[in-house]
Write a structure and sequence with these properties.
The chain has helices at about 10-20, 45-60, 75-85, 100-110, 145-150; strands at about 40-45, 60-65, 90, 115-120, 130-135, 160-165. By secondary structure, the protein is α/β, with parallel strands linked by helices. It contains five helices and six strands.
Length: about 170
């Protein structure tokens, strides 16, 4: 007998299960003490972004804003600062020097950053119990398993978590 455990969907395991080569069981409930994440899919709207961030800030929480384009991440930060001048906003991506990545992670951990605008680098194990809102800009650029993995970065406490997967104004395929 083989027991395979995974926190994320793995295509090979799924393929084995669907072909009947391997049995699979799925855990559909969150761990004890956690609440299922409320997930929304919507057309990008600044009002949704503003309301989601303000709601989390009122709860004294933090927000991940995923924007997976390094070239335009600073513009997104500027736009968010105009939209939410009271919020402490900074960014993180893999092309920053390691010392800056560490510094910004510590700032987020110490709650010196309310909104962390980040690329998919955040899917690599950033676990902060106080980060309970995720906003994904242009979610159409993510695959389903990647979106699931990224959504798993929030909801790590007993507070309600919210995930917003936003798509551009054009129609979804």
């Amino acid at each position: 007998d083989i027991l395979s455990l995974s926190a994320t969907p793995i295509p090979r395991t799924l393929s084995f299960a669907l072909s009947g080569l391997r049995d699979i069981s799925v855990i559909n409930t969150p761990p004890y003490g956690r609440i299922p994440i409320k997930t929304y899919v919507a057309k990008f709207d600044k009002a949704i972004v503003k309301n989601a961030i303000n709601h989390e800030l009122k709860r004294k929480g933090q927000i991940y804003f995923l924007h997976n384009r390094i070239g335009s991440i600073q513009k997104i930060v500027e736009d968010l600062k105009k939209l939410l001048p009271h919020a402490k906003i900074n960014f993180l991506h893999a092309k920053l020097p390691e010392s800056e990545v560490i510094e910004r992670m510590e700032m987020f951990s110490d709650r010196k950053i309310d909104v962390l605008v980040t690329t998919t680098i955040m899917e690599n194990g950033l676990d902060f119990q106080n980060a309970n809102t995720l906003i994904v800009d242009n979610a159409t650029l993510l695959g389903l398993s990647q979106a699931h993995q990224i959504r798993g970065r929030i909801g790590r406490s007993d507070k309600q978590a919210y995930a917003y997967f936003l798509y551009p104004s054009r129609k979804l395929p």
